[in-house]
Design goal:
- By secondary structure, the chain is of the alpha/beta class.
- The protein has one domain: Rossmann fold (3-Layer(aba) Sandwich), CATH 3.40.50.300.
- Helix content is 33%, strand content 29%.
- The protein has a six-stranded mixed beta sheet with strand order 6-7-8-3-9-10.
- The chain is globular and about 55 Å long.
- It is a peripheral membrane protein.
- InterPro entries: AAA+_ATPase (IPR003593), ABC_transporter-like_ATP-bd (IPR003439), ABC_transporter-like_CS (IPR017871), ABC_transpr_LolD-like (IPR015854), MacB-like_ATP-bd (IPR017911), P-loop_NTPase (IPR027417).
Amino acid sequence: MRNRLVLQEITRTFEDGGIERTILDKLNLEVVEGELVAVMGPSGSGKSTFLSIAGALLEPTSGDVLLDGESIIGKNKQELSEMRLRKIGFIFQSANLIPYLKVDEQLMVVAKLAGMDKEKAAKRAKELLDKMGLLHRRTAYPEKLSGGERQRVAIARALMNDPAVLFADEPTASLDASRGHDVVSMIAKQVKDQRKSAVMVTHDDRVLALCDRVLFLENGKLIKK
């Protein structure tokens, strides 16, 4: 199996009052296709920085990130934007749905940005919503959806452009235990069925059993306990 996400010797430093501080220190990570990896760590441990670098939102001070075998290093803003659109799916703490778009339109707008054929996009949106158990809600607006339904729409939207890698940032934070379990279970199933690599940053130990690996960010490195 191939690694769809690779972080090699990632270091990120910043200046603080004339002192150089290290957030990530030669961090390494490989995630194979079909694998969901949970990353945990206390506030201030560098999880947001890690996720931003892995998701091509922030360039490391040194090291490299490979998304489906392609490096993010040295690319300009437009190239990185294209890379994120085509290779990465993001699922956030809040579903971040566009309030004036219906469920199916949330997916279609992402496909339009990527230049996907309209007929192909409509077919894929229908398939994804069916998998998420949301086909009957396709014409509903976000305000009419439950928290769990909104997160399922967010998962479908993240998968719309068939990305290589999924990143989930505290996807259960606003959900109760049952809905949180359902959402992560759905992420895990899609990752395995569609052979994605996925990383989930979480504080929710109730969903760790659904993950293939659990890593802890400590002293700038990912470690397994």
